[in-house]
Every structure is written in C-alpha cells, then in structure tokens.
Prior knowledge:
The chain is an all-alpha fold. The chain has 2 domains: 30-220 and 330-352, Citrate Synthase, domain 1, CATH 1.10.580; 226-323, CATH 1.10.230.10. It has helices at 38-44, 47-56, 62-73, 80-88, 95-106, 118-143, 157-166, 172-185, 192-201, 207-219, 226-237, 240-252, 271-286, 290-307, 313-323, 331-352, and strands at residues 22-25, 30-33, 36-37. The chain has a 3-stranded antiparallel sheet with strand order 1-2-3. Strand 1 and strand 2 form a beta hairpin. Helix 8 (172-185) crosses helix 16. The two termini are 21 Å apart.
Amino acid sequence: MEKQVDFKPGLEGVIASETAISFLDVEQEEIVLRGYDLIELAEKKTYLDIVYLLLNQKLPTHEERLYLEEQLKKEYDIPEAITEIFKRLPKQTHPMDALRTGLSALAGFDPKLNDRSEEANLEKAFRLLAKIPNIVANSYHVLHDEKTYEPKQELSFSANFLYMITGKVPTELEETIFDQSLAVYSEHEMPNSTFTARVIASTLSDIYGALTGAVASLKGHLHGGANEAVMYMLLEAKTEDGFQKLLTEKLANKERIMGFGHRVYMKKMDPRAMLMKKALKKLSAEKNREDLFAMCELGENLMREEKGLYPNLDYYAAPVYYLLNIPIELYTPIFFASRTVGLGAHVIEQHSHNRLFRPRVNYTGPRKLHP
C-alpha cells in the first residue's frame, strides 16, 4: 500500500503557501504584518491604518487615512433586501449564520462580482469591510426584535461599529480599546478560516464565496467560538473562588478549557492577549469591575501552574467585550468583521499568484475488493 511519508495530521507545520501579508515569528514573539509588529501597530496606530497597510502594502499618511474613512462611510449602508432576509430567518438563528447568509446574499448586489482583477478585488474588499459591521450589528437586532441603528457618519469607523451594536456612542476609552481589539484580530497568518478562504479563492471563486466559507470555518468552537465560551465560563463562576473551583473541576475531569493554548503559541503567551489584558485592566477600573480582571488573572496563573498553558487572544478579549456591553453572541461575528481585511488581502494575493490547492491523502481503507 502506498504511503505518504510526510503525512502531518491537521497539516501541522506544513507550509501551504507563500505570502507577503503576515507571519507569526514565535521565536521573536512577534506577529509581523507587512514588515511591522502588529502589537506596536495596535498601540501606536488605528485599525484603519492597519486596514490601509494590509490592502495597500504601506502605512497611510494622515490624509490617506482620512480619505479611506470617508470612502468607507459611503459604503456603510446595506440593501433593504438584506434586512428583509434577516426578518425571515428563524429567531433562534445564530448570529454567525445570519452573517454568513447576509454576506452570501450581498454578493448579488456587487456590480463587479465576477471581476477578479486586483483593482476590482480591492474595491470589493473595502466594500465588504464597510458593510459587514452593519450586517453583524443589525442582523442581531432584527433577530431579537430590537431597534436597528443606522450608521453615524460623524463617528469613526470603530466608534460607529460599537454604536450600531450597543445603541450608545462610546466614550473615548471604549472607542480606543474597541479599535485595538479590531486591530489585533485583523490578521494572523494562516489559521483555518484564512486557509479556507484561500482554498476557495484558488478555484477562482469570487471574494464573497471565499469569505462566506471563512465565516463557516470561524463559527467552530475550535477556531472562533472560544471567546464566547470564555465569557460564559466567567459568568458561571461569578467570583474568584468560584472560578478557581470551576477550573479545578474541569481540569480534574480532563475537560478542554477555552481561551488557553494555541497551535502556534505553544510555550508562550499570545502577544495579542497581553495587549488585551492591559486594555481589560484600564476598562475594569473605569467600569468599577476590578473583580472581573482579578478573576481572569487568577485563571491565567492557575492554568500556567497546573498545565503550562497560556492565554490566547480570546481569553482577555471576551471580558473586554463584556465590559463594552457587547452581547456575547456577537463576539465571534466581531472577530470576523475585524478579520475581513486580512481575509480580503489573502484572497487578493491568492488571485494574483494563483495555484489551485489539490492535496493528496494517506489512504487507510481496504484494497482489491470485488462486488
């Protein structure tokens, strides 16, 4: 029987593509975006600076960033037909399913849907970036029979996104922290959803199809759903003592504890988690919820001591979103909305230097059977 000698379960460590977009340098503890350190970008620049960098391959000037924001504002609105689709969905529809449906339906409204040129793909990527926050926020409101919120042109991109979710104009600190969260979720080399998008794009399918597949990938709890699970766990525990007891019981029962460990950051803390930990400390002080920060720090220390595991981004992003009054079910859709720019960059790169993905298998079934 023929064997594939270099078979790697889950494609662990397999180099599947060349890219100039991003790279996880674990040894240097650095997430590289177009040559820049993501954490430094998130601390010194805005999310839209990173958007411009990922799609235009350079950081914008102040004027270029303002122009980008103005162009995005022109594309904030979604067709009324999309809202009508949300009204017809079952009320129990998960927000990620509503997002997937809305994104797929949106394709039919794009006049350049079948144009695979880099210029047209850039236009579509920016258009999606502008509209997906509206889909995320207002599909949720429709499904919960709540008031929907029209985009506010006078707000920044990140402030408007948060406003459409909560119905309240955020404070300066809330806007800054939410913007940082979008920045650190923006791009992360080749996780499952990005690989999914590139595989779909490699068939020369359109960017909407590629991103719709990425939504389905991100919905899984082993990829994007961890932030929701973390918050439910914190709410169940209620206190530091309760959280210690809950984690200890889960460890004793050999249960998987979401928010810890990463396929790439095996022996170190996710640098994005460290940034969100700092954000949580500031936000918990403003909201008088230092108890929530203390719970998270206790869990971090316990998991490191007991299992040698470190928090990933979802662990500290979850309580940050909670204190921003974001419904828990929207944590993963927000992850996708922020990652839209990274996914768009990967689809554009795939189309520009395309080779169809066609891996082989290590066959383990029978041979030479006869009917």
